[in-house]
Every structure is written in structure tokens, then in C-alpha cells.
Predict the 3D structure of the following.
Amino acid sequence: MTAISRKTIQTKDIQRNFVEVALPLPLQQTFTYSIPTEMQAKIAIGSRLLVPFGGRVMVGYAVVFHETLNDEFALVPSSIKQITQLLDSEPLLTIEIIDLTKWAAGYYVSSWGEMLKASLPAGINAGVEELFQIANSGIEYLEQNISKRTQKIELLQFLNENGETSFKELKKKFGGAKVRGISKELHEHEFISIIHQTVTAKVKAKQQNAVRLLTTKQKNSPLTIPQQKIIDFLANESQSVTISELKGILDVGISPIKTLAKRGFIEIFKTEVRRDPLFGFALPKATNITLTDEQSEVLSKINKPLRSQLYRAFLLHGITGSGKTEVYIRAIKETLSNGKSALMLVPEIALTPVFSKRLRSVFGKEVAILHSSLSTGERFDEWRRIRNGKAQVVIGTRSAVFAPLQNLGLIVVDEEHDGSYRQHEMPFYNARDVAIVRASNANAVIILGSATPALESFHNSQIGKYEYLSLPNRIENRPLAKAEIIDMREVFAAGSDDKILAPQLLKAIEETHTRGEQTIILLNRRGFSQFVLCRSCGESIRCMNCDITLTFHKSQQKLVCHYCNHSVIAPEKCPSCESEFIYFLGEGTEQIEKILEQKFPQLRISRLDRDTTKKRREMEKVLSAFSEGKIDMLVGTQMIAKGHDFPNVTLVGVVSVDAGLSMPDFRSAERTFQLLTQVAGRAGRGDRKGSVLIQSYYPDNYALQHAKEQNYKEFYKREIEFRRSMNYPPFVALTSILIKHPNHNYAFENAKILRNSLDSANKRKQCIVLGPAPAPLSRLKGEHRLQILIKSRNRKHLRQTIDFAVAEAHENNCDMKIVYVEIDPINLL
Ligand code: ADP
Ligand code: ZN
Ligand code: ZN
């Protein structure tokens, strides 16, 4: 066991006797193994290995070689185990990614092995299978003892008859515990051999039949018309063509192809084909855009460090529709022309079809796409194209920050403020911040782009960490949408029939439709009703695991917990007082859609939220139908607020923002401001002017007021003062420690040990330590959640305090398995 050293990864050649292996376990250390002589020539930094660990065999990653063992091991070299197997002849991981994941694991107090695993596409991270085989001495033993009916003999006989057999199959036949017991003994006697192999079945390169021309002419061989067509086509084609492509292009059947092959004109062979995530999608036409003066000025500032290949971080603050994407595209072009590669990160899957199609239409098939809703096969193919240097441009979501691009020249992080760059489970990381470090390591340029920069990023541009670039005007000076806040208290007081949709909004929808224009209605929750309330006893129905209100989903007649997915049949009577006056309060996307359908039967309405978009193609279909004008109104959650460009949308209605504002989180105002600005940016992208109507019970809130004016700088001024006075980021470095356990006392006892350790680490009071207190979501998925917050104006002090406290808590028998340290958390729920 070795703590991860801070020194950079070695590349110079040394005798490879021992190797440091990072394992995908929640442990912040690497493990030392010896390398069998025959493996020493083949193993490399970044190789995946099978190694024994705690009675099983695991996949790990080679990260450092040693010629000799250091002092720690000199006394007990016998405790060093050997590598079981080398999995890849060519290492999958690049030195750059090994370095980057090492930094990320250290910074986020996470596991290096888990970070490495997260950097690889899922299909590659194979499981391990044990295979049992009878050995020669086993056969001899079996022959001598065949008459005995012991389990040992039965197992040997089974292996003798069936050949190589997996543990799984043996378990089915004999039971797991027995197989373990017997095989251990048989193995010790060398009657059987056990080998480990990775289960790779999940992804393989896809093969297809292709054809290649051998000759165009043969004596005495008249050709039919389809046959001649094929020969002519192939004669002009420099590359091989798959049979399915050929059939599609020439509209011919399989039989002329087969005949030509039989007669020796062409050859049919297997070739590897790419599963293309954009196969069959119409691409937008690449238009010839002349940059505006503002765009040109911004681009020339970006091009300078691109040409000199120096690290530079830019914050591109451009309002929605100001032409940021066009600037990204030009910067990528410049990068490619300098012989370098480019990585573009986007926050959500909802954005990738739009952007990736736009990039594909400019850069062609070179663009690789990486996001989690690709099929395993597609992701595997895309990842390998990047690893093999075939894709010079990559667009992807969060984990694409670890894409193994060589020779990186540019990273673009679009919508850099977006919360989905943050990974909320182990291994924790924020892809935007990892991207900054990656760019700096690679001497690359990074552009963080947003209409509503994260407060931290804007602050960084103020203090000179990032160079500030701005695009303050919309293309062609299209006016910004006019925003208005509808005071729902007035609507309620006026006794209108509609308590959910204000009359002003209904009227605007009507008028928009009459003009032949489109509407987006935004709501921040899915489901039908927010929650179910009893009017007799006032009880709301809550999740038994999470203690938050359940949401009614009408189509399934169920109440669903949006945190743990626990669901119950919607009751007809109140579960606590049996009254029949239960009342569905608040509203969800499904209910709004229903109401709108009733009010506007002439409108074609579609809904887009996580319920309707479980299927990726489904969502893409709705989005393209909307952009083609086949749908009049889109109702949805925040996923429709971002990035899309629908020129015919002139009205955006925001039905409920209040839920977001009342979230117990210091970023709730910032998030609400961002959401409203983003969604307002969806209106009036074309030639016509747009309007935005925001319904709220808190119309005076500053986040709403500044969003209404689309005034980022005023919002920033107000919000940054709040952060300064209340000691929140960016003025302090923040860490949250969550302690989670089904048993509250157990969680609390451990939290107390941690708090004591933090106090003794913080004797000089360089940090503020708060808690343990119940986290805002105090119960989730059956676990009690306690939170300790640590703040400091000095990041180094904060980190030292945490490292020291964690070590001491561990020594004082704190159960570290239930402790989750989150550096720079983005929300505190
Ligand atoms: P953003 O990414 O800032 O929201 P986009 O780059 O998507 O903005 O630009 C908004 C719209 O304006 C797009 O339809 C885009 O094609 C168009 N556009 C961008 N730059 C120009 C330009 N220089 N001239 C004309 N149209 C442009
Ligand atoms: Zn729940
Ligand atoms: Zn009741």
C-alpha cells in the first residue's frame, strides 16, 4: 500500500520489476504488485491488468514502475503479490489522462482508480470471469478413483467431460459455496487450473461485408446492367464500400454482387465499420457566415494564443443569440489548421444532437461524439476513433473531459455555468474545472462560454485569472425578448378561474398562435401535481425513504418520489385521517399539458421532460418536429430552456419559478437567474421580437427582477455582496462532508467523531466548521443524511485541515465508508 505521491508520472525507462496499480475502489492509494518476467517487456504505463485483491481478482491500471521496492517493503517482500494477467497489448490510457486523473483524484479527495475507470467508455470496463479446467494430474487422479462417488470426483468428472467451464456454470450445477471449497483443494493439488479472463462480450468492433474491385474486364463475360453499374461505380471509388452502402447508393440487389464475386470481378471481405451516432440524421447546411465586427474581435483575441500554442483561459460572456457558437466553430477551425485537436464540452444530452449536427456539417465525419445516452457499441467506436487519432474534434458531455485526444489545442466549455458538469457521485469532479487543468497541462486554449457565467467564473475574470471577452449584442441586433413578471397574488385575489395559468399568459398564447408563431411553456418539475395535500388534516403525502413530498403521475395513477423513485398507488382517502378531501396541489408538466390541451384544442402540443425523453431518439424527434413547425407549443422542464435555436418561437411562458427560489441552497438565486435568462433567450431568435411572461408569487425577488431586465452585471453585483458577507464561494473554498446511514444514531456518532477531529485539526481557526446538522434533504433512499460544512478563505488550509481530520477520524474508528467528502460542492441538498 502506498499513498499516491505528488511527483509526476515517470516516463523514463527503468527495469520493470514492480508496478503501482490504481484500483477502482473508494480508496485513495495505489497498490504494489510484482511483474512476472515474461510480462516485463509488454507492460506499459496505462495498461489494464488483472490483479489479486482481497480474495478476488480485479481490473486495475498500471501507473508507476519500480525497479526495486522502497524501504516500506524491503522487510516483507513476500507480501507483494504478482500480476495475474496483462489485458491490453497496447495501453488504453494515455499518459496525459493518467496525469489528469491523478490530479483530479487528489483534488477531489477521490479514488484514482475510479477516476481512471470513469475516463474509459463503459463497455471496455469488463468484468472478470474465472474458468476452470482439469489438469493432466487431475485426469490421472480421476481414472484411479473413478469408482468413488465423492464431490471431488464428480466435479473432476464434470470438468473432464465439459472442458473449460466458468465458475457461473459450475455454481449452477454444484452450488457456489461447494465449488469454492472443493476447487480450492483441487487447485492446491494441481488437479485443476483456474484462469481469469475478462468478459469482453459487451462491445466489439462491428464488422460488415464490403466489396473491392479486382478487375473491370474479363474475356467472354458480358455483364447485366446492374452488374455493369456496380463495376463502373467501384472503378471510380478509391475506397472499399460496404455491401449495404452499395445497395443503397446504386439501388441494386444482392444477387448481382454475389455473381460478380463468383466470377472474380470483385472480392467480398469483412471490414470494420463505425456505429455512427448521427447515422440517418439530416445535417443542417453549412452556411457561409461573415462574422460581425464583435465576433471578429473576440476571435482574433482567441486566435493569438492558439497560434502560439500557449495556455490561455477565456471567459466568453455573450448573451443568448450573440453568435458564440459561430466563434467556437472558427476557433476549432484555427486549431485544426495548426495541426491540433479540439474538445467541446456541452452540458446536456438535449444539446448534443443540435451541436453535434452543426459541428458535423462543418467538420465532417472527423467529429466524434461522446455522451452517456449513446449505445455501448457507439460509445466504444467513438472512443476508439479518438484513441487512434482518427477524430480530431470531439463533442461530448461531462466525462468527455477525459477523452484521449492527443495533441490538444483547444477546449470549449459551452454553458460553463451548468450544474450538469458536476458529477454527483463517486468519483466527484467538475468537468469545467478539470478542463481548465487539462488545458493548462497541455498548453492549450480554453474558452468558457455562457450568457450567465457562474459567479465564480465571472469573479475569476474580474481578478484576471481568465481573460474576459464579451458579445453584448444579438446577431443583426435582434432585440432581446421583452420580459414581464405576472404577480400571481393579484391573479389569485382577482378570483380568476385560472389559478395555474394567468389570463395574461393565456391571451398571449392565443395571439402567438394566431400570428403563426410558436410558444414554449417552462415549468421546473415533471409529473402531474407537485404534491398531494389533505384539506382536512393538512397532511401531505411524503416518501417513506426521503421525507419529501411525492409527485402525482397521472398516466400511471401513482405517486412517485423524484429522489429515490419509490412509488405508491394514488390514494382515494387521506392515509392519516381517512378524509376524502385530498387535494392535488401545485402543478407538473403533465398537468399543464392537459390544461393547455383543453384550452387550446387547435394547438399541436408536445411535452419534453425526463419522463418523455427516456428514449433518446424520441426526444430528438420532438425537437426536430418543433423546429420544423410541426408542433405549435412545447411544454417542458429546464431541458428545453437551454441551447436550442428555434427562430419561430416568440413567446416563452414560465409557469412556476418559486419552487427553485425556495430551495435551501446558497445558489438558489443564481440558479433561478440563470434559468430565466436562458429560457428568455429562447424567445425571438428569428426576425420577430419575442416576449417572456414569468408567473411568480415573489415578483420583487432580485433574481427575478434582474432576469427580467436580462442584466447580468447588476445581478452579479448584488449576489457577489451576498456571497462576500455570508462567506460563500468564491470568497471561501467550501467543502461539504455528508455522513449517510440508515441508522440515525450510527450516522450521528460517526459525525461527532469527525467533528472532533476537524476541531483538533483546526486549532488555529483557519476554517469555519459548521454542523453536523441534518442535510436539507435529511432522509434519502432510506438513509439519514448529516452534513458538516467547512469553509476557509485559504484553500490550502482547508485542504490540510480536511486531510488531517480524515486521517485522525479514521484512527478514532470513524466508519469512513459512510463518509462522503465533496470538494467545491455545487449544491448543498
Ligand atoms: P449563441 O451560441 O451565442 O446563442 P449562435 O452562434 O447560435 O449564438 O448564433 C445565433 C444565430 O445567429 C444562429 O442562427 C447563427 O447561425 C446566426 N449567426 C451567428 N453568427 C452570425 C453572423 N456573423 N452573421 C449572421 N448570422 C449569424
Ligand atoms: Zn424517496
Ligand atoms: Zn387527512
Notes: The chain has a mean pLDDT of 84. The first strand starts at residue 2 and ends at 3.
